[in-house]
Amino acid sequence: MSEKRKQLLNVAEQLFYDYGFHGVGLKQIIKEANVATMTLYNHFSSKDRLVEESIKNRAERYWSYLNASLEKLTESPFISIVQQHGKFLRDVSPQGCMFLRAVEVYSGTDNNITQIARDHKMKVLHFFEELAISNEINDYKNFAYQFMLIIEGATSMTQVTNSTQATDHAITMTNMLLNQY
User: What's this model's pTM, rounded to 2 decimal places?
Assistant: First the structure.
């Protein structure tokens, strides 16, 4: 990926997150990315394609946080995931979930964008299922779904309280969930 494309994606992702998908125009993105108009159109044919790629960019960033949790040798990878998710909330996503916002904003108007956001959520759920299988949790589907709800709840509560408090409660709930399985 070229440096200019990466720069455009990072700026667009942050602006879409801070001001909403419809609250940001291409002129603002071009100005804040400090690129020429043609540079943007050389990389993205339209604003919707830029939104798609920005969501994919954010998903890559989220996965880098999750993968970091698995590099730590801990007693429970699920607790490490909650901690890394909390770090992602603190560092990148203190105002809620960009993927769910995309589904809300583009549902019924742009199926590509909503599908990218939904695919990310399903990929995370499947990742949790695979991790539950590798940790010998027999009812892995229900465990993964309930764990996903804890993660999603922490994301929502970060907007109400803060990422530290939401993460602490998510760790407590994850320990309770692990004790049930």
Answer: 0.93
